[in-house]
Structure formats: C-alpha cells, structure tokens
Amino acid sequence: MYKQKLVAPSEAVEAVKSGDWVEYGSFSGCVVALDKALAARKDELRDVKIRCTTRVAGIPEIVKADPAGLHFIYNNWHFSASDRKLGDQGRCFYIPLVYSELPEYYRSYIDVDVVMIPVAPMDRHGCFNFGPQISHTMAMCEAGKIIILEVNPNMPCCLGQENGIHISRVDYIVEADYPISEIAPSEPNDTDRRIASLIIEQLSDGCCLQLGIGGMPNAVGEMIAGSDLKDLGIHTEMFVDSMVDMVEKGRVTGARKSMDRHKIVATIALGTQRTYDFINGNPMCVFMPVNYTNDPYIIGQLDNFISINSCIDVDLYGQINSESSGTRQISGTGGSICFAEGSFRSKGGRGFICMASTYSSAGRVFSRIRPVLEPGSVVSIQRGLAPSIVTEYGIASLKGKTLWQRAEALVSIAHPDFREELIKSAGEMGIWRKSNKRTF
Q: What end-to-end distance do the CA atoms of the chain give, in Å?
C-alpha cells in the first residue's frame, strides 16, 4: 500500500483544485516539500485557501510565489512571528477561535478539501504518527476529502490519543527530510524573574501546572527546577524546554494528580531539539487532542491546578487582551480563556495572567494597565472570567471584586509613575471611590 501511494510532491499536489480549502498542518508540523510543490502550480490555480496554525518554519512558499494573493489565500488560527509580519502586510488572515473548540469546528462547521500534513515514518502496523502537534490533527483528517502525508524521518513520535493515522485512510504519500522547526527559549529579564518570584510563592508540593510560552513562564520553570518543590504535575497546552528541566531535576512526578496520574499531559510541543528528543516515544508524556487538554471541565477535575499565562495589556475593568495591539493581530487567543476558566473550577486552583507593568515604544514608556483597552484591541478574557493579574509590583486578584475594587487592585500593581494618572481616569469613568487607597 505504501509503494502504491508513494508519489512525487508535484504529483500529490495535483489533487488541489481552484477554490479548495487546503490544510497545511500546525506548529512544528507544517508541510515543506508539498508547500514548494503547490507554489509551483500558482499559475494553474485561483482562490486556493490555505489554513495553518502558528507556522514556525518561516514564510510559506505559496505566499512568496503569490505576493498579491490572487492564487493563494493564507489563513491562520494563531500567528507566529512570521505570520504576524504577513498579517501586517495583509498577506495572512487571522481566524478567531476558542482553542478547546477547534476539533469540533472541523467536524461540524468548516470545509476541508485537501489535508497536507507532515508525519513520522510508518510503523510496522501501518500507522503514521502526527508528532508533537496532536491538537486538532485527527479532526482535520476526518473532515478532509483527500489526505496527503509528508513523511519526515526527523519527526518525533508522541504517545497518546488521536496521535496518528493508518495508511488505509491516506490518499498520497510523499517523502521529505528536513529538520523539525525549533524555537529557542526566550531569555527571562529581571522583570520576568521578579514576576516569577511572586508566582513561585503561590506554588505548593503536588500542584498541577500549566505554563505558557515566553520569558516569564521560562523564568517560572527555571525557578521551579531549582526549588525544593515535590511531586508537581503538568497538564498543559504546550510542552516546552523549561518543563524538561523541571522533570530532569525531579520536580515533576505527577504522583499527586487527581487524574492522569504519573503522566505529563499536553496537546502540542514547541522548543529546541532537546524537547523533541525528550518527548519522542516517552511513556511519561501523553499527547491528547486540544478538546481534552484545554477543556475547562477536564482542567477543573485536577485539584490545585495552577495556570500561568501572559498578556499584552489589561484595563481597569479587568478586561484582558492577550492577542492584539489595537487592530493589529499579534498572536491569537490560544488557550488563555480555557485555562482561566478551568483553573477557577479546580479545587484549590488559581489562574495567573502576567505582564510587565510597562512597555517602551518610539522612545516613550507606556503602562500595560490602561483605563480602557485601546480601540480595536481584542478582549481575550472578559472581565467576569478574569483571574489574578500579576506584574513585578504584585498580584491583583479580581474575582468577586466590584469595579472600584478592581480599579484599586490594578492601580496598586501598576508602575508607580502611572498610578495617579490611572486614578484620575478611574474617577472620570466613575469607578473610583474617594475612600480607595491612593498609596501603595
């Protein structure tokens, strides 16, 4: 069967017709050889719509070949750095989502004509492993009319559910050999470490962790690895390099998890080769579809669940923007809303959204705590779901607080240079009481 379905990339992409919706894979598993072959067919095709998730392999060949977007329309569920640049140029279009719902989008709501995904080589049972992007890949394949696999011997094999596909369900196979895309860990700065030190104080032996990506979560991971915490669990959207450190230093055993005991649960992995080597065939790691890992009802069944994510800015109402700067799409909603709700459901659980108190642009310094979000900025987590907000100046718990209490709490963790200005704005907005604290 393998030999019968094995073709050159140029032959495989003949399956794509004008007007089709084509899946390109996600994260470290986005097609390379098939992308190049499809780009070569530019002049034969019109209105081919490409869907992808966080492509870290750089700009797709179909975009390079068609700058005007007349032949290929590139769409994305969550922007990477290169996707963001294309978005700024009007060459990549964001697709809003709640990440835990994504498999059901494929099964019930959207059209898929051709699925093109990288996989690990076929095993002796005739199965191809999806690698470290289980996420929504099986649902994508179930929806696809035609399935084309790009077999890459460098793809790590991940154990878990919905983690591969049998050759009988595949239409075409192509072979390729290229390194899996890596993301170097962001180096934490002093502010990241100050925020991380506040978070570490909230952790206890046996708690179950979810970490996002970036300098601050990496700082948390570093501190956990160097701490004396014991029997931590991991149930996360993304498995990253700092988690390898936590495991190898003996901090993570999963022994006290209230479900999936002794297992690290994730839906994707992004990092360096060290991470990919760690997860490859590792029975400690269980990769599950995102409608399991990010389901607030599943998360809520894990006692003492601690969610740690980042955001761009927060307003005095407690509205959290994790994905845009005004109308400019920076990344995507991701799992922040799922873990904010799930951590609240957890017995003993807490959610933390972290950010530096300020940022600099064009030689000026601005506060990340704003009176109201910038017009056009996305409310990634609405104020009713907002968990605790953390800056280098402290932690503001927003649950159950009135608008004037929220304003007071958020001003208390803003940079001191902006507090009076925020108080003035809160007064003009009618959410500041004269009895509120003015000194912190």
A: 70
pLDDT digits (tens, 9 = 90+) for 344-353: 999 999 999 9
Structure tokens at 15: 């399956």
Question: Is 184 among the domain residues?
Answer: no
Bridge-based pairing of strands 114-119 and 146-151 is parallel
CATH number at residue 295: 3.40.1080.20
Phi, psi of 34 (to 5 degrees): -70, -35
Q: Kind of pairing, strands 21-26 and 114-119?
A: parallel
306-342 per-position pLDDT tens digit:
999 999 999 999 999 999 999 999 999 989 999 999 9
The Cα–Cα gap between 197 and 193 comes to 6
CATH number, domain with residue 134: 3.40.1080.10
- Number of continuous H segments (helices) and E segments (strands) in the chain: 16, 27
Q: Over 80: is that where the pLDDT of 65 sits?
A: yes
d(CA 195, CA 357): 10
Residue 175: strand pairing partners: 151
Q: Residue 141 has which token pair? A: 């394949």
**Are 295 and 336 contained in the same domain?**
yes
Report the length, in residues, of the chain.
440
Residue finishing a domain among 121, 146, 175: 175
pLDDT confidence tier of residue 186, bands split at 50, 70 and 90:
confident
127 forms bridges with which residues in the sheet?
166
- Contact (Cβ atoms closer than 8 angstroms) between residue 388 and residue 395: yes
138 plus 219 within the same structural domain: no
**237 catalytically annotated:** yes
Residue 279 dihedral angles phi and psi, to the nearest 5°: -85, -15
Q: How many structural domains are present in the chain?
A: 2
Sequence-distant (≥ 6) Cβ neighbours of residue 249 within 8 angstroms: 225, 226
- Which of 23, 237, 392, 408 is labelled catalytic? 237
Q: Is residue 3 part of a domain?
A: no
pLDDT tens, 363-400?
999 999 999 999 999 999 999 999 999 999 999 999 99
CA distance 236 to 113: 31
Same domain? For 213 and 324 the reply is yes
